[in-house]
């Protein structure tokens, strides 16, 4: 059973105050990266495009959008890249994004179908550096690839701790957040938080290294028949198309309750929750970032209501 929404999880209307930006301009923004010391944001879209836009923190915000495309087979025929599931194997699906820690001209883009690309935003050139299909650690100087933890159900949302010795990540299929320390060896992990009120997506750290935990979906009152059987989710995924699963879920099972948490992963406590109980403004979030001192940037994960939003 999902946890009761009481105490720090008590529903509120914080997310209803968010402002939708760039409406109808993006098809399925997922992850995002903010260039250091700037308001320039990059995000990957359902149609295989990496989009760039800049936010001017004023009453008249400057939203100039620039688009580029990964060098996939679709580069020769972009008409087929309509954001449908059938187009993903050809057009790619850029998801995770991070800037190089010491060179913010280099953006690393993890594509779900083609691997990890290094994108030079000055020259507008891409280079494929790694093909991946699991949760791995890649060490750039030595060109070494290491499997950290295997046998997980939909791992996602990787975030290093402040010493860069341990990594936090979501295990979406098991509704929990895990921690793996590099010195502890292959396969080891500890549970930071489990039985979450929703399906956790991309984790990101705050300036004091607390964690933002967005939820693509919050849980129904009794969803144990599915959430306690991740093998059943795997089975359903093998017999039904992604588009059918998505449409069925949105129609019959989606709670339309927008939710994100701020947690302390070291003391393993929830510090604050942000809700939109009726999905009035935000019903699904894939990532949270804070590029400005007082500005949150939210990305919606639901493909039928794709948008970016800001919360002051």
Number of strands: 23
The geometry reads as: globular
Quick check: average pLDDT? 82
* CATH architecture heading of the domain at 27-132: 6 Propeller
Q: If helices are DSSP runs of H or I spanning 4 or more residues, what is the number of helices?
A: 4
Query: What is the chain-wise order of helices and strands?
Result: EEEEEHEEEEEEEEEEEEEHHHEEEEE
> Which blocks of ≥5 consecutive residues have pLDDT under 50?
none
Given helix and strand content, the structural type is: mainly beta
By CATH's scheme, which homologous superfamily of the domain at 27-132 applies? TolB, C-terminal domain
What portion of residues is helical?
under 10%
State which percent range the strand residues make up.
35-45%
CATH class bucket of the domain at 27-132: Mainly Beta
Instruction: Indicate the radius of gyration in whole angstroms.
Output: 19 Å
Distance between the termini: 33 Å
Largest sheet, in brief, is: 5 strands, antiparallel
Question: What fold name goes in the CATH topology slot of the domain at 27-132?
Answer: Neuraminidase
What secondary-structure arrangement, pairings included, does this model have?
Blueprint: E1 19-21, E2 32-34, E3 40-44, E4 49-54, E5 65-69, H1 88-91, E6 94-100, E7 103-111, E8 115-120, E9 125-130, E10 136-139, E11 144-147, E12 155-160, E13 166-171, E14 176-181, E15 190-193, E16 198-200, E17 204-205, E18 211-218, H2 224-227, H3 230-239, H4 242-253, E19 258-264, E20 269-276, E21 287-292, E22 295-299, E23 308-311
């Amino acid at each position: 059973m999902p946890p009761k929404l009481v105490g720090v999880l008590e529903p509120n209307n914080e997310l209803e105050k968010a402002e939708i930006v760039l409406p109808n301009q993006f098809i399925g923004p997922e992850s995002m990266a903010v260039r250091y010391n700037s308001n320039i944001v990059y995000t990957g879209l359902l149609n295989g495009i990496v989009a760039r836009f800049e936010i001017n923190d004023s009453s008249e915000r400057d939203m100039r959008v620039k688009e580029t495309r990964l060098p996939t087979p679709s580069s020769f025929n972009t008409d087929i890249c309509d954001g449908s599931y059938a187009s993903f194997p050809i057009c790619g699906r850029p998801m995770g994004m991070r800037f190089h820690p010491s060179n913010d001209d280099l953006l690393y883009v993890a594509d779900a179908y083609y691997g990890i690309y290094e994108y030079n935003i000055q020259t507008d050139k891409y280079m494929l550096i790694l093909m991946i299909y699991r949760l791995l650690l890649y060490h750039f100087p030595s060109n070494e690839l290491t499997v950290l933890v295997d046998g997980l159900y939909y791992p996602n949302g990787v975030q290093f701790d402040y010493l860069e010795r341990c990594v936090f990540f979501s295990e979406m299929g098991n509704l929990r957040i895990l921690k793996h320390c590099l010195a502890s060896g292959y396969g080891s992990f500890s549970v930071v938080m489990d039985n979450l009120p929703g399906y956790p997506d991309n984790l990101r750290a705050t300036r004091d290294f607390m964690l933002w935990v967005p939820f693509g979906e919050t849980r129904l009152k009794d969803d144990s028949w599915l959430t306690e059987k991740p093998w059943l989710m795997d089975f359903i995924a093998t017999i039904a198309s992604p588009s059918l699963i998505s449409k069925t879920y949105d129609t019959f099972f989606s709670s339309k309750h927008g939710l994100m948490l701020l947690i302390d992963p070291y003391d393993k406590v929830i510090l604050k929750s942000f809700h939109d109980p009726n999905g009035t403004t935000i019903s699904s979030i894939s990532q949270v970032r804070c590029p400005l001192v007082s500005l949150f940037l939210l990305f919606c994960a639901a493909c039928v209501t794709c948008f970016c939003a800001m919360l002051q």
